[in-house]
Design a protein that fits this description.
Strand order of the largest sheet: 1-6-7-5
Largest sheet: 4 strands, antiparallel
Radius of gyration: 20 Å
Number of strands: 10
Structural class: alpha+beta
Mean pLDDT: 94
Shape: globular
Low-confidence stretches: none
Order of helices and strands: EHEEEEEEEHHHHHEE
Distance between the termini: 49 Å
Number of helices: 6
Length: 245
Amino acid sequence: MGQTILSAHVASVRVTRGDWVATIQGLTGARIGAVERHGKQILVRLDRGLLYIHLGMTGNLLWNAPSGKYTRAILELSNGVLIYNDIRQFGRFEFYRELPANLVGVGPDALQLDFAEFFLRLKSRKGPIKPLLLNQTFISGVGNIYADEALFAARINPHTPANRLSRPRAAKLFEKIREILQIAIRHRGSSISNHVDACGEPGAFQQMHVVYGRMGSACSGCGKPIRRVVLGQRGTHYCPRCQRA
DNA sequence: CAGATCACCTGCTTGC
DNA sequence: TGCAAGCAGGTGATCT
């Protein structure tokens, strides 16, 4: 906040979604205002627009770290260097003059939504609950790991039609989503292969996964093997006994 | 309008 | 050892 971007370098056309010239021109010389997060999206307010960052699957932001093979963007600020790394380049690092439509369309943040609204919105959806939790226009901020972990914690089968969840079961799911996100944040997230925080520290929450990535191992609740299916094109892990259909 | 199917990228693990 | 297939934290376009 209050820092100036002295220089901007973009090493990947892809993370700027094409217009890397506009990104460099827009960022160079800009003064940084508030930094906000909406779901998985990071918004850096600038005096002349905004920097939109989405880490995708393999993105990370490092403060005062050396650049590397997968560095896609570098911002030299008046008090340090911000490095954006992204192996797969599914993330974004873009300058906009105004708030883009895809941000306007993002759903309520998982940690700010209230239960009444969550339940109301659930009732209008008849598809399976798991893909709905990943739908960022429905609720933003929940990813594949946390959807599976929250559904297990609430003992809800991922195939359950959203509108068939009773109020108490929906309330339990709501509570578990928030609880798991907050615990995961406290543990700096889940490092499956390369996730690190801004200090370069890996997360520790992967040690607390009870279903995600644990296909075939014994369920912590009943001992039956954890099952993996594909639901909504995403690997989905659950216990067939503890999370009955 | 919801659901399915690819596509976008690179790397790691597994199995033959 | 080598090589192909499958998998991975997330969207986004297009077709049915």
